[in-house]
Write a structure and sequence with these properties.
31% of the residues lie in helices and 27% in strands. The chain contains 6 helices and 10 strands, in the order βαββαβαββββββααα. It has an 8-stranded mixed β-sheet with strand order 2-1-3-4-10-9-8-6, with helices on both faces. A two-stranded antiparallel sheet has the order 5-7. The two termini are 17 Å apart.
């Protein structure tokens, strides 16, 4: 199982999700989203995983990078390779599938419950949140999870292979979340940084188990065959 992991060169930790993929025997190939080739130049691929970013898909500064990622997503799906997206990854995915994204009036932070119509592909959590942008899905995408800020999970099978994406962060470890908090990614919102870090640490054991189960469910839904039976 060969998986291309699209991420920022400076922040490419797939946390619990890539940990689980590695347990399944996956070969993880890192791809810098600021220097994306066409999909057919990647070589053999069983799955494309789009990680988060501190970029904004609607920001004109990143138009070239977003356009390249949209081409990659569409190329992968048309070639029969499924795509999985997280946070910024699902925002770009939404754009690739005919939707859009924009800056929210307030960031969504901390560990939050998600309302779901599919507890297998989008369990209610709570899940780690850290995003300033929200998205609207394209006409062929189905929303199966949401929060008071907007969609939290979409699935789509109209572009060739299947796609799934989550706005929340199933992958995030407490160490990564603490780093994001320290970097002030979310801006000055009045949130207590110490409380955000406390939430990350308190939810760590449950978060890891949830992320592993979610990854397994997503692989089955996408039709990706694991190379080994991780336990």
């Amino acid at each position: 199982m060969r998986i291309h992991v699209v991420a920022d060169a400076a922040d490419n930790d797939g946390g619990y999700v890539t940990e689980r993929l590695a347990e399944h025997g996956a070969e993880l190939v890192e791809v810098d989203r600021d220097a994306l080739p066409a999909f057919d130049a990647l070589g053999a691929s069983d799955l494309v995983l789009l990680l988060g970013s501190d970029k904004s898909a609607h920001d004109e500064r990143w138009t070239d990078a977003v356009t390249s990622e949209i081409r990659l997503i569409r190329g992968a799906l048309a070639a029969g390779t499924p795509v999985m997206g997280i946070c910024y990854g699902v925002q770009v995915m939404a754009r690739a599938l005919g939707g859009t994204s924009w800056r929210s009036d307030r960031p969504e932070l901390g560990w939050q419950r998600v309302d779901t119509t599919d507890p297998v592909l989008c369990p209610e959590g709570p899940w780690g949140q850290m995003h300033k942008d929200v998205f609207s899905p394209g006409p062929t995408s189905r929303v199966i999870g949401s929060s008071w800020r907007g969609p939290q999970c979409i699935v789509d099978d109209a572009w060739g292979a299947r796609a799934i994406g989550w706005q929340f962060h199933p992958e995030v470890t407490p160490e990564t979340y603490e780093r994001w908090v320290a970097e002030g990614y979310y801006g000055d919102t009045g949130e207590d940084p110490k409380d955000l870090v406390r939430q990350a640490r308190a939810n760590a054991p449950r978060a890891r188990n949830l992320a592993h189960t979610l990854t397994d469910s997503a692989l089955r839904h996408l039709g990706v065959t694991a190379a080994s039976s991780a336990t």
